[in-house]
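Exam prep: given the inputs below (a chain plus uridine 5'-triphosphate), describe the expected output before reading on.
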Amino acid sequence: MSFRIRKAVFPVAGLGTRFLPATKTVPKEMLPVVDKPLIQYAVDEAIEAGCDTLVFVTNRYKHAVADYFDKAYELEVKLEKSGKTELLGMIRDVLPRHVRAIFVTQAEALGLGHAVLCARPVIGDEPFAVLLPDDLIWNKGPGALRQMAALAERESASVIAVQDVPPDQTGSYGIVATGDVQGRTAQINAIVEKPRPDVAPSNLAVVGRYVLSGRIFDLLSRTRPGAGGEIQLTDGIAALMKEERVLAHRFEGKRFDCGSRIGLVEATIEFALQHDDLAEDTREIMRAALAR
Ligand code: UTP
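Solution:
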């Protein structure tokens, strides 16, 4: 079976409690880093990796995500009339023409594994990508998902993005144990959700990028609620590993944990410093703030 991925799933039906009260009305994935919402960074990464079908798993309160990818008639007419072609291009290009967006609903926030399972009717049984938009990954070269898609195709195997985390933070992540490491890649032997540091098999943490075999759907549909009463993607992956090879890949790039407030602050500063028109002012503001 070819492991070429064309479809990407964006589970965006979580409650985003860490950003309350903002997330009472604004979905976490719509929070901006400088001038783009988090979801746009993840979508751009998926398209760069070769995906042309984007599946958003939303809930009934998250109209903002669908609205964002919809056509904004009034705004377009206004920008067109006033000759603001650059801005017009910007809002039209949120999705290139060859890419289609499909929305499915997760009726209840029953966990990440359950959210992925909701995309099954669109994905079928082919390999696909999962991107969690609150993990914002920046790389100068190819994006994290593109690196993983190439590896998945070469090895005909599922691939999960991992990163070393400080040992005292294992309780916040899925943690993997691997076999021999070859370059940035190793086969996963075990995966556990949020282990305490004293029982964690390593400090290699799963971050929000996955290339998964379509087989995961059957396994997820049989997965019982695990940690926190939710259907965990980690448990589905643990079942998948018993049948197929699953690789861990230390991607090249920097990850910002934009699911946490400090991560969003960090990403905002770093991305502002990368914008030519903002870098100097940002430095000046930071210097002044730190001198106080
Ligand atoms: P998180 O663990 O970050 O949960 O979910 P959350 O609800 O979004 O945020 P907090 O912790 O309350 O602040 C990881 C990813 O899984 C999605 C989320 O939208 C996020 O992208 N998710 C989680 C779902 O789509 N459905 C769920 O039932 C749970």
